[in-house]
Design brief:
alpha/beta; 8-stranded mixed β-sheet; binds ligand 6R9; nucleotide-binding; EC 6.2.1.1; Ac_CoA_lig; ATP-binding
């Protein structure tokens, strides 16, 4: 079988693309040489109430740290995503909603979207929500999730979307951190034929946190849920009583648009704050460039709106670009493992964007469930969330794409707002497993642990030396944590937390996190969070969590657990601990393996030696390195001996 390492841009793509090789080179140069002129011109893609005259105002230095883009510009995100399209596209489908059941789907036009978003905005206003207030959204993948985000944007409220898979405790922590007085939820969610008790979870969360005055409850399944008098409001009833027109609040470019909590290497999840002008510009510009997107094309990003990918490429990017965005409530294997491809055929999807973990799971089911569908409408494939292994890349390319579709492997983070490193389908020759090259305006470097800049083909830590408009502005309520987390390791540079290799062609290959963040099925999890959850259990004395290679999830969660004296280790207790973590954080944090550890390898100063724990979890027992500095080297032998049982 031919196994090329380079997949050149096809002549058809070079011809049709918005940016070809020459255009890419020119844009990179312009962005480097005259950033203000470059970004000022690019930002005319948005509709401004007042066009910005100050474009970039940035310093990554501690003394005068600031990140501001388009700072005297005034605009409204909902206007840009809806109203400005109405004169020409009122009847075009804005959101194509595909429900959990294949029989359940709906097309929402831009005209309808306008009415729905205005109604929700008016309901929020009637509940006292004002510009700058934080609104927590805990919703399934239903059109109302997009309405709610856009309704907040319309009136200048700041949304915080919490993924519906998070537990009541996780939800409570996020509500508390940003002091939301209002939560929007649904009676239940529906995924893969199973219901998720969203409203009941909100009720449980609100027993742990005070300050929430209103819970708006959207009807999804029609389940009979408890309603607390004076606090809970049935959305349908509230919406019936308000107008379907609501003016857009003029917002400064640097006014907050949303908070999205993400896991870091230490402590509680951080509230990543994005602002109005820079974020919307970045979501819109990258969506057009990377997916070579033209208005009206059917674009399907399979991410949930509870993650940043759903924010930027289900809602804001496509809608800002007058797109038709497909929003999928379900899962890839329900009712059958052909579901993705059946949805592609049903809605004539042209661009399909998903995560490697989904591809690996589907790959295991063989080619037939793919080949039984047509997929003729597809013209471009995308990948996001974690490194895509070359084997999955080739399967995606050959089986899903029948060898005719380019794949854009897009590297970015919650913090970056949108894509930073990716091939452009008309400009970049592809290499399976490489996110290839930075977008124009994105300046990457590889550095070693001491911060020495590494040149040429090499490996190191990935840093970014200058700002881009979509960059996060702060950790909500904690500017110091923002600076310390991202700008203190390598002064003057943004540290991504990722390790990376650069090859002889200058292509970037992300190798994964170098901090204590693990990437489980494309979702970020802090090892410290899982450890905190484990030690909350009455039987647990101590816990250390590391990632290990997992065939489907990319990385799995491996937990070393030391039990309290007198507690007996047994399989039922393992199950109980897994259930406990699911309850504390949510199903995505459930450990895949629990290793009973009579002791943990620690330095004399008491620091857990994670490097050794990672090796043992990976079953790489030959190169444990020097263990002589450990307080008790015998601990390692014990763990090695018991590794086989896990
Ligand atoms: C968008 C998103 C960010 C982390 C990031 C990196 C990993 C994302 C990747 C990738 C290799 C890609 N990551 N895309 N690694 N290739 N194409 O996923 O945001 O949830 O914040 O995760 O995901 O490790 O640092 P987020």
């Amino acid at each position: 079988m031919s196994d090329p390492t380079l997949y050149p841009v096809s002549p058809e793509w070079a011809e049709r693309a918005l940016m070809d090789k020459a255009g890419y080179g020119a844009a990179r140069q312009q962005a480097q040489q005259g950033p203000d002129a470059f970004w000022a011109q690019a930002a005319t893609r948005l509709d401004w109430i007042t066009a910005p005259t100050v474009i970039k105002n940035v310093s990554f230095d501690r003394a005068d740290f600031r990140i501001r883009w388009f700072e005297d510009g005034v605009l409204n995100v909902a206007w840009n995503c809806i109203d400005r399209h109405l004169p020409t596209r009122r009847d075009q489908t804005a959101i194509l909603w595909e429900g959990d059941e294949p029989t359940d789907s709906r097309a929402i036009t831009y005209g309808e979207l306008h009415g729905q978003v205005c109604r929700m905005a008016n309901v929020l206003k009637a509940q006292g929500v004002k510009k700058g207030d934080r609104v927590t959204l805990y919703l399934p993948m239903i059109p109302e999730a997009a309405y709610a985000m856009l309704a907040c944007a319309r009136i200048g409220a700041v949304h915080s979307v919490v993924f519906g898979g998070f537990s009541p405790d996780s939800l409570a922590g996020r509500i508390e951190d940003c002091a939301s007085r209002i939560v929007i939820t649904a009676d239940e969610g529906l995924r893969g034929g199973k219901t998720i008790p969203l409203k009941a979870n909100v009720d449980a969360a609100l027993e742990r946190v005070s300050g929430v005055e209103t819970v708006l409850v959207i009807r999804r399944t029609g389940a009979d849920v408890a309603m607390v008098a004076g606090r809970d409001v049935a959305y349908a009833e509230a919406a019936a009583g308000v107008s379907d027109d609501c003016p857009c609040e003029p917002m400064n470019a640097e006014d907050p648009l949303f908070i999205l909590y993400t896991s870091g290497s230490t402590g509680k999840p951080k509230g990543v704050l994005h602002t109005t002008g820079g974020y919307l510009f970045w979501a819109s510009w990258t969506h057009e460039l990377v997916f070579d997107y033209r208005p009206g094309e059917v674009f399907w990003c399979t991410a949930d709106v509870g993650w940043v990918t759903g924010h930027s490429y289900v809602v804001y990017g496509p809608l800002a670009n007058a797109g038709t965005t497909l929003m999928f409530e379900g899962v890839p294997n329900y009712p059958t493992v052909s579901r993705f491809w059946e949805v592609v055929d049903k809605h004539k999807v042209e661009i399909f964007y998903t995560a490697p973990t989904a591809l690996r799971a589907l790959m295991r089911e063989g080619d037939e469930p793919v080949k039984s569908t047509s997929r003729a409408s597809l013209r471009l494939l995308g990948s996001v969330g974690e490194p895509i292994n070359p084997e999955a890349w080739r399967w995606y390319h050959e089986v899903v794409g029948e060898g005719r579709l380019p794949i854009v492997d897009t590297w970015w983070q919650t913090e970056t707002g949108g894509i930073l490193v990716s091939p452009l389908p008309g400009a970049t020759d592809l290499k399976p497993g490489s996110a290839t090259l930075p977008l124009p305006g994105v300046e990457l470097q590889l550095v070693d642990a001491e911060g020495q800049v590494l040149e040429g083909a090499t490996s190191g830590n990935l840093v970014i030396t200058d700002s881009w408009p979509g960059q996060m502005r702060t950790v909500y309520g904690d500017d110091q944590r923002f600076f310390d987390t991202y700008f203190s390791a390598y002064p003057g540079k943004y540290f991504t937390g990722d390790g990376c290799r650069r090859d002889e062609d200058g292509y970037y290959w992300i190798t994964g996190r170098v901090d204590d963040v693990i990437n489980v099925s494309g979702h970020r999890m802090g090892t410290a969070e899982v450890e905190s959850a484990l030690v909350l259990h009455d039987d647990v004395a101590e816990a250390a969590v590391v990632g290990f290679p997992h065939d489907i999830k990319g990385q799995g969660i491996y937990a070393y657990v030391t039990l309290n004296k007198g507690v007996e280790a047994h399989d039922d207790l393992k199950k109980a601990l897994v259930a406990h973590v699911r309850k504390e954080i949510g199903p995505i944090a459930a450990p895949d393996a629990i290793h009973w550890a009579p002791g943990l390898p620690k330095t004399r100063s008491g620091k857990i030696m994670r490097r050794i724990l990672r090796k043992i979890a990976e079953n790489d027992l030959t190169s444990l390195g020097d263990t002589s500095t450990l307080a008790d080297p015998g601990v390692v032998d014990d763990l090695v001996k018991t590794r086989a049982q896990h």
